[in-house]
């Protein structure tokens, strides 16, 4: 079970029923008739032993919902640690820890871990276990919670454990993949310790999808996207207002942590223009800097800029997928870029960065996943101009498992850092970022696990940075 999207008086509580979780039918061996339903009891308590139950109720689920349960209790006390569990068919689930956010303008400190990219077959989920051991108040997952691929080799990264099934295409395929992931004890521990805020990236559907454009031409892509988004919603703790309609869902949203943090959770897949330069990595072409292009879409862009203007939070944190800061890659005497990241959509990047600057957002910090490595950067108004001011900060988390054991460095790193002086840190191990957020500072610890090809890796801090109130940019400690 899991919880997510906390507010001052509630959150969403999630579970899914199964008798044979990885059955190829995707329904976990449960009855598949449209009228087959089961009632699931839930309760929320003030204590781990459920001596003081604050709320209880019953939710109905069935085949139509993939036997998923999403419950949204309201009226719970603010800024409190709470426990929840489910009961169905004579079985009781383990207890999960969750919490409500502080109410109103309260500035209670927050411990938050964020991460991304958990390719099951490429590594053990030890980093999820280490996140659980941090006892965070909140976990952010910035995409690639699952991967769509079948059992196939990928570059030089070895397969360390088998993935079931072929590349996902049908609802049953996607549902079964989540069931296999959810059997992982480390992932379960990370869900059981704290509420999560999730956004998908590409691999919950298909590599590098952009709106209705799949990676390779595919007339069935709308049906595939519909199946993928439906299975995603069924298998993560999102609120009911995110439930897909056909092949669309409303993922982007704001979540406040009292007056301390305004989380702007973005969707950079569903409304983006197709990748420029033929989506060749890395590359450059005039389309890349075309002002009209974007990866948020017009509606989400104005929602975000309105959110900047209306924010009174101490910290505005953008929870999103792909790297925002410029990453110029020197190659054969030229500078080339990743067309799938914000570097492929420079016009909209400028509007977002200028938007928070003009709105005088007090402390904008961008949180990013996708690239399977840790990065930290000062966000500048003009990345090519060393004299231009630092107007924000970006923290990029490495992956849970994608990329295998990794390395401390890469042969090209020194050249990349020299070409991009606003980038302050890089590490190519797996891991997550632990943040401690107070009214005065954010402390970010870049945590790594030295290996994921065998169990029990410790978590180690490779670098720590402090961001100070009203002073954009990184200070290494
Ligand atoms: Fe990824």
From TrEMBL:
Gene3D superfamilies: PhoD-like phosphatase (3.60.21.70), Purple acid phosphatase-like, N-terminal (2.60.40.380). Residues 113-446 form the PhoD-like phosphatase metallophosphatase domain. SUPFAM superfamilies: Metallo-dependent phosphatases (SSF56300). Residues 2-100 form the Phospholipase D N-terminal domain. Pfam families: PhoD, PhoD_N. InterPro entries: Metallo-depent_PP-like (IPR029052), PhoD-like_MPP (IPR018946), PhoD-like_sf (IPR038607), PhoD_N (IPR032093), Phospholipid_Metab_Enz (IPR052900). PANTHER family: ALKALINE PHOSPHATASE FAMILY PROTEIN (AFU_ORTHOLOGUE AFUA_5G03860), PHOSPHATASE, PUTATIVE (AFU_ORTHOLOGUE AFUA_6G08710)-RELATED. This is Alkaline phosphatase PhoD. It comes from Pseudonocardia eucalypti.
